[in-house]
Design goal:
single chain, 258 residues, alpha+beta, Cytochrome Bc1 Complex, Chain D, domain 2, five-stranded antiparallel sheet, two-stranded antiparallel sheet, 8 helices, 7 strands, 33% helix, globular
Length: 258
């Protein structure tokens, strides 16, 4: 009886687990992060694995440096972080078999292309566009050639610029598409609108690369144009030659020309 009482005391409240599952589905369970119910996506599988609670709390709060795992401290309240940790910990006893795949539409997720098949002149720009090791990679926000994440605007409209003009545009662009989001509970962040209907608003949170897809009840968020966003914040590490290489790739991918 004592052992049973201790287990009941240690078991998370079902309401807390439900809240953790809801937050996980909104902010973590997307095709380029963790998959549905902790199945492997672009991020590692959580389902059927055991983690120390201290580690889960640290990673959820602070993220993992030099990776696509963002920290949620300041975006989620401490009770919400604990709810997510409880939910992820509960997945340790789940079957390792993945649930039905959370497939992403064409052009919104990584593609299994073993090597670049285009001309050598565009190869350097292609590598930069999809460089998984770079936080400023274009493919984290833009889709091109069937790859990348279609969070940002379509690039075909600027491809007609010369390579020099396009390189300058990459560095200096401002976007009318970026919004400033204020959510119930005080959460505020720059974002791109992914989808919206009468009930739900889906947003790509631009706080960390790659953008995280988050879902809110429409009544819980307010949206306004974000005038302070600058593309130069993302392109500041690129040299002139790298910008020209990116421009060459974009022009080839859209127009079939350098």
């Amino acid at each position: 009886m004592i052992a049973l009482a201790l287990l009941l005391l240690q078991a998370p409240d079902p309401r807390t687990l439900a809240e953790g599952e809801r937050i996980f589905a909104q902010s973590c369970s997307v095709g380029y992060c963790h998959g549905v119910a902790g199945a492997a996506g672009r991020g590692p599988r959580l389902r059927g694995r055991s983690f120390e609670r201290r580690y889960l709390e640290q990673v959820t709060r602070d993220g993992i440096p030099n990776s696509a795992m963002p920290g949620w401290k300041g975006k989620l309240s401490e009770p919400q972080i604990q709810a997510v940790v409880d939910y992820v910990a509960s997945l340790a006893g789940a079957s390792e078999q993945a649930p039905p795949a959370n497939l992403m539409p064409p052009g919104t997720g990584p593609a299994a292309l073993p090597s670049f098949q285009g001309p050598p002149a565009a190869a350097v720009g292609h590598a930069l566009f999809f460089d998984a090791a770079s936080d400023s990679r274009c493919g984290a926000c833009h889709s091109l050639g069937g790859r990348g994440i279609a969070a940002g605007p379509d690039l075909s409209g600027i491809a007609k610029k010369s390579a020099r003009e396009l390189g300058e545009a990459i560095r200096a662009a401002r976007s009318r598409h970026v919004l400033w989001v204020k959510a119930a509970g005080g959460d505020a962040f720059p974002a791109l609108l992914a989808a919206q209907d009468a009930v739900w608003t889906k947003l790509y949170d631009l706080t960390t690369p790659p953008p995280v897809l988050r879902t809110f009840a429409r009544a819980e968020v307010s949206l306004a144009p974000y005038q302070d966003w600058r593309h130069s914040d993302l392109a500041r590490h690129l040299s002139d030659s790298q910008l020209e290489a990116l421009a060459t790739y974009i022009r080839w991918a859209v127009l079939g020309t350098k």
